[in-house]
Amino acid sequence: MKIVLPGEHPTLETVPGRFGEIIIVGEKAMMMRLTVQPNVPTPPHSHPHEQMGIVLEGEGTLYIDGKEKHIKKGTSFWVPPNASHNFDATGSKPAVLIECFSPPREDYLEIVAKKK
């Protein structure tokens, strides 16, 4: 069993203008809260992780393999492994998302470990 209390979540800036809070990490998946500042474009990227999430606040455009979709509060999404993707917040306020990755993002965990 693992329990992470409020205030114990490690934080990181994944790219400029995108701030992550790692909520919990398991053996095969991790969950994080991501805050994306409006009008700060994110470069397309890919990774071998399956990714899914839900928008808690705000809105934006999600791009997956050249297709784009406007998403807003309450919208959930899935990004297959190795798909080129990015998300840009397009509203006047930051977008807040909960994202899950499987397997856990070792690159993010390394960034957090270096901050300790």
Topology:
Elements: E1 11-15, E2 18-25, E3 30-36, E4 50-57, E5 59-64, E6 67-72, E7 76-79, E8 85-89, E9 95-102, H1 106-115
What does this structure look like?
By secondary structure, this protein is mainly beta. The chain has a single domain, classed as Jelly Rolls. Helix content is about 10%, strand content about 50%. A six-stranded antiparallel β-sheet has the order 1-2-3-9-4-7, covered by helices on one side. It has a three-stranded antiparallel β-sheet with strand order 6-5-8, with no helix packed on it. A hairpin with a 2-residue loop joins β5 and β6. It is globular, with a radius of gyration of 14 Å. The two termini are about 25 Å apart. About 15% of the residues are buried. The mean pLDDT is about 95.
Query: How would a textbook summarize the main sheet?
Result: 6 strands, antiparallel
Structural class, by secondary structure, is mainly beta
Proportion of strand residues = over 45%
In the CATH hierarchy, what is the class? Mainly Beta
Rounded Rg = 14 Å
**Shape descriptor:** globular
CATH superfamily: Jelly Rolls
Strand/helix succession: EEEEEEEEEH
